[in-house]
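Hey everyone, long-time lurker, first post.

I ran two proteins through the pipeline my lab uses and got sequence/structure pairs for each. Pasting them in order. The first:
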Amino acid sequence: MRAFRWFLLFFFMWLVCSSAQAGHRVALVIGNSAYKSVPRLANPANDATLVGGMFKKAGFDSVDVRLDLNVGEMRKALREFGGRARDAEVAVIYYAGHGIELDGTNYLIPTDATLETDSDVLDETLPLDRAMFAVEPAKQLRLIILDACRDNPFAKTMKRTIASRAIGRGLAKIEPASPNTMIAFAAKAGSTASDGDAKNSPFAAALVERLPTPGLDLRKAFGFVRDDVLKNTGNKQEPYVYGSLGGDDVSLVPAKPVVAGPQANPQDAIRRDYELALQLGSREVWTAFVAQYPDGFYASLAKGQLSRIGAEEARAAAADKAKQAEDERARLAAERANKAEQDKAAAAAKAAETAKLAAEKARQTEEAKAAAAEQRRKEAEAAVAKVLADKLVAEKALANRIATDKALAELAAKQAAEKKAAIDSETKVAAVAPTAAQPSLTPNETAKLLQSELRRVGCLATAADGDWNAPSQRSLTLFNKYAGTKFDTKLASFDALDAIKTRPGRVCPLICERGFRVDGDACVKITCRAGYRVNDDNECEKIPEKKPIATRDETKNRDEQRKQVESAPAKPQATTGQMFCNGAGCRPVRSGCKLVPGGSGLASGDGRPRAMMEVCG
């Protein structure tokens, strides 16, 4: 029996160790915030700490959280993690920080990178392929989570050695070659992610909420993450997952085992034998029970029953002896024995009676002990039965909750898939009325998203307010012109929104207001030197000098003087040979007078009448 128990113990320990080895899970978490050449990022260190804690609570066998690593430290961390992944079923890498895409290849940026030119990317960063190489030895699941799609400040200052070299706005799309490999981006390829206004980014907060759900398939979990981030960012940031898994559900945290029914109690067989012996109640039965079960609770009860039987046998023997003594005394009295013999018989009878009373008392004591032990047994069995019943109720409740959660998860995943299919359909959304194809977005929200994208590609200068007005329609017209598309400018459609999202940079040329000129991607105010001003062609021209302007009083006095001269009667004076005509008639110009241009009179000296005025003195 003892050897058999040791064998069972050894087998159980081997089974537990084998199960633990089969589910070995490892994780590497990196958060880079303190960059030396660009402004510090607020959340990656906080996000890495939060996600690392999530992996530890989820029961991962190894979780390595590393913050603010330079290029050498990142290489070492990935190399060491690759060694741990060789013995693991699940290997996960989470990276938060800056990343960059160069000619279609993604790179993770350490904190000591400067990236003055595009060629520095090859020397100062680590390609994403290095992280994929580190998780590749895992046998069941290889997962890389990248919260590295932030707006990259390096790309704005980096000098290009080749003008045609492409540097993306976010990270490039990737298709893993290894099976059972998934790569999750915080934002869709070609777009950027937000740090958010809280302590953690919207993507990290959604991860720790959804991934640890026991038994939840990763594809559904990341679908819930996508919905949460879209909701929390006003549909501006959409996480995306690349890669594929097989047909079986793959969860980051295994589902808890569900107990189908009550477990067998090893004491049940002993209890049944004890109750059978209690019904028989003989010394032989209890002796056999103690021989079969020499130790334990029921063995103590059986030994108590044997003591009770022994007390009863002692009492019966004492009663028999007392009866025999009494019979002997009576016989001697009947035979008229001498007094000595009678006294002797009486003493023997009294002693036998005393022994009988003592045996009776001992029997009662043993029966009380046996009854108390039996009561304790019943109470203990009732307590055990209550514990088992409560455990069964709790296990059923847990099983029901897990089944409900799984059903809700499947329903939510189905609804998310239907919503995504509706978004990808070719149904156009009018700016004034919602449609059945997009029940989750109002026309105002659709117009606001389209305006935001038009602003990003440089076709709209006004704010994104959701009002699809004339400036918004003109901005879509500009996009059609420079992108070669033919979208209806009167509608804020999802087709136009999807087409604009695929454009990584500016589409419409930068047009500045009057008084400003284009300088790179910004408008700079035009400043002219002293004495010059900006004309309608946005060029500096000299300010013309102002000519003296006659005042109102001077003009009035001149007109009155002219009227007085014209209306004065003609006096006989010597003439100059010229003729002057006015309302009173024509006459020669008087001596001492001369004709000047202006007035209402007419003068003719060469045959051509002209408007003249006669001035004398």
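...and the second, right after it:
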Amino acid sequence: MQRPEEYYQAQISRLTILLKKHKQRRNVITLVKITLFLLAIYFIYTFTTSSLELYLVAFFVSIALFIITNIFETKLLKTISFLKKQEECSRVELEYLAGNFKNLPTGEEYKDPSHPYAHDLDIFGEDSLFQSVNRTVTPHGKEELCQWLLNPLKSEQAIIERQQAIRELADNPEWCHIFRAKGNSQRITRFAMQQVECWQQEQISLPRWTGPFLYILPAITVSAWMLFIFSVIGSNIPLFLSILSLFCCYLPAKKTLQTHARLDEFTRSFSNLYELIGHFSTFASTSTRLQAFHAQLFNGTRDAHVALRSLHQIQESFDQRTNVVVALFMNGLFMRELHLIQRLVAWKRRYADAIPAWIEITSELDAFVSLANYKYNHPTFVTPTPGNNLILKGTAIGHPLLPVNECITNDFEIARLHEFYIITGANMAGKSTFLRAIGVNLVLASCGAVVCAKTFEFQPTGIFTSMRTVDNLAKGTSYFHAELLRLQQLVDMARREERLFIILDEILKGTNSRDKLNGSRRFLQKLLTLPIAGLVATHDLELGGLADTLPDNYFNRCFEITHTDDDIIYDYKLKPGVSQNMNASILLEKMKLV
């Protein structure tokens, strides 16, 4: 099986060659356009001086070829931009796999210290889980992924359906990278999404007087020019009709300009959705969730891809009005701008109310592609097994944000509610890293994502942590009071949840040692009345005595160290029992602080 690094490097090499070829073609097309433009000027000038119809025909042919060439150039520029985005995606992933997160969004705006676990588990921020997982290309997809990370699924079936979709997409990495490149080719913003909502509700209409002219006048004008070319009539009549057509088109110019501007805002906002939905139409899905998306998007009578393609074509036609030569030619013969507005009115009447559903589906698909990309980047990670037999059981569990060569793994199991593991150990022995490894993997598992473990079984559950309590002087909240409020939040959440997995690190730090021990012991006993299980890390070795008084509910595990006169050895492996060795005094001596 090809390693992710090899795949991305091969993609970059292939795309570099393609980009060079397309840029050479673009140079040729530019030269052809200049030549056709100069020929058109020459033919129309010669016609005005010689009055030979042959030069007029040659002029029209040159203009037609110029328009066709311009269309080819637009498509080629789009292809070049798309290939650059593909190359960029591969470079970003190579950097990520090398441990460089600098080009990845941090999700800092989603940080919330009051959330049940996001602050403690580094879900957002620098070097966060969000940076590792998120590759969304739409703002609503980003929001969707954040909600998945912040709100664990409680349904086993829903988790399995997500896992199936993620696995299916991860097996098609090239399709996923094309999806991302298409989305990145024209990034959509939150403001743009507001424009989508506004445009969806706007009413568009043509002035009533334009109705009779839309088909009759173009038919007469084109016929007159044909008769002129075959020398049946003079040039005055077709010229007059073309000027009349232009007058009819530009009389409502203010309305047309406004309609074009609003459509431009909408389609540019929605254009990457058009590309993403179109790309999804090429994916032959077998998973339940993706098949449901297909059924909703491509249901025949209101096919989203067909609808958005027709809207895209309207937009491209509108864009040609900025080209004076094209605009004069098309409006003078066919009154094209009025026809475009009429097509737009019909489109909105048929499809506008379906736009919210398209956005919602695209947001989920965007989030799925991110998690599929995460799975592909970590081929050694495992898809966890949701069930009702155990709260959590895993082998070789590691922290997913640590480099593979630095990640020490541990086996761990919690069988049922009201089981609590008291974790003791010296400073820097691995307690906090282990707690976060369990928590972050449980968050990933509850999203349907892969986890850093060899095997991982879990019961869908709520998650709560208390590891980084902070005071708030502005609100008059002391550190100890903030701790109490956090524990109150835990109890309130446990009363609402069917089951809750907790991770506590050194609770009640804001009081003296004896009070802390008594308070911690009483609080942990209180938790036996609630549907809770979990981990509690502490430096209070006496708290391990709970395992003697209540052996069915409390279990001791530790991270031990060994030391000699010259060095301290950390193995970061979880062991049974209470820690026997501490290192604060040794470290103070080694650093000559005492």
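Reply from user beta_strand_b:
Welcome! Quick read of the second one: Residues 246 and 393 are 75 Å apart (CA to CA). The chain has three domains: 1-103, 134-206+252-377, 385-590.
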